[in-house]
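pinned: reference chain
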Amino acid sequence: MLSVGVPDSAFVRHNSEANGRRNAVNAALRSLAGSGSSGNFTLRYVDCPVSHAGGDPFEPDGLHFASVTYDRLGERLFPVVKEMLGQTSA
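pinned: its structure tokens
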């Protein structure tokens, strides 16, 4: 199972409460993934590969991805998913 962290955004950069919650969620997901396999699956955590700081486009609200950013997200996660699928088929 792949867990993708909550991304950086203009919204969280200007809202300390939201940023704190984002960081807490990502830390919890990272910790859970680090605890190893559970039953028939392994949880893997990756930081969100698109971000406001990285120059990826967001909608004017500063919180939601622009449509092109969803394409980038898929392209950047593809190698991780491909690797994970290769591991499960071995």
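why pinned: The chain has three helices and four strands. Residues 2-89 form one domain.
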